[in-house]
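Hi there. Long-time user, first ticket. I'm pasting a complex I've been working with (about 449 residues overall). I'd like to know whether the download I got is complete or cut off, because the file seemed smaller than I expected. Thanks.
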Amino acid sequence: MPEVLTTVTMTVNGQSVTRSIEPRVLLVHFLREELGLTGTHVGCDTSQCGACTVLLDGEAVKSCTVLAVQAQGSAVTTIEGLEGTRLHPVQEGFWAKHGLQCGFCTPGAMMTAAYLLSQNPHPTEEEIREGLDGVVCRCTGYETIVRSVQQAAALMSEASETSGAEEVG
Amino acid sequence: MLTAPFEFRRASTVNEASDLLQQGTEVKLLAGGHSLLPLMKLRLAAPEMVVDISGIPELHGVSVHDGVVTVGAMTRHVEVAQNPVIQAEAPLLSKTAAVIGDVQVRNRGTIGGSLCHADSAADLPAAVLALDAQMVVSGPDGIRKIPASEFFVAPFVTALGAREVLMAVEVPAMPSDAASTYLKRPHPASGYPVIGVACWVGNGGTSVKMAITGIGSTAFRAVEAEAYLTEQGVNASSIGEAARLAAVHAPVEDDVTGYKRQLVNVYVSRALHQTMAGKD
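Hi, the file is complete. Here it is re-exported in full:
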């Protein structure tokens, strides 16, 4: 079959990008190879491990199982876009509570955690574990990741109490 | 992994999708992509054309009318799990959708995509069978409805015609006194059910419905267990015999050691006990 390029436009970390690509390009490859955003990792490449998790219109998705053309017109946030003027509370939490060892799953774990806290700012430990079900980490045994998310939740509610703002990050 | 090359189209109406389906021998519809794309990446599927149906307005939305809940084919698992109408009228469907895959998978996968893919190890077939749901299908000859009991023909094969598009799933509202459970034993790596039992008991115990997925070549209703429980009532002593009946009559294959029937026995029993305890 002859290669037919398709034009795709989406917003990635707040910036509009347009590229002509083969329709078979996966979102994760689009981010890494077209845009050079290599923070999003390819782990299992079979929708299991969650290392490739990004936010698509605010929802955590596995970008190895989304075609870039399916993100047409959408807003994508990658680990590079999580940080604003300062570290995102999830990043601070992972830093403070040693939520990583080798770091390979960390971008996906952080994006999944950020999504969880956007849906449920005060999760129980059980809810955190359920929320992270789609992330595989071979180093930490998950204990420190759970603590990191708890730390992030505490930081976020502290910040919202101080500023009176509804949301942080 | 890259899929084989394909032509990409977007359909904006069901008729357009149906027309595109006849443009080649290998045309596939793409909803959330969580069944089709993994197959394409493994090159188990290599369609010439992929038609994105996510933007078709008719495939979206959840409504209830005259005791029937209509769930648009593009409804994602996360919404099936959390939608207040589905939770109120057909909680068994919500409970099943809530344990599909993981959070990220539920954010993308759709009820229509999963049902049309018809993986024999999928969760949803058990729920739609136990709920006597109907598939609303649009094709060249108009709209028809296929009962769930006739929809799953074989692994990865449904009763959908070559040019037909699943538009929605119609689920009869459960009785207000119904208690229900979807209990699965997830495979530790894939999350797919090794066995999944969907059951509900309602109308003062006179309605007992149960379907089992994962363990047979397609999901199936446990009709012998249903009949026994309807006659005997669901209680601690009848549950044991019902589980035994379900196991004996389960259409399982390659079960030399009896492990699959044992799983049926144990999981039917647990699911019924959970239902009667009002747990979920």
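A couple of notes from our side: The two ends of chain B are 38 Å apart (CA to CA). The interface with chain A takes residues 1-8, 30, 33-34, 37-38, 40-41, 48, 50, 52, 54, 78, 101-105, 107-108, 189-191 of chain B (CB under 8 Å).
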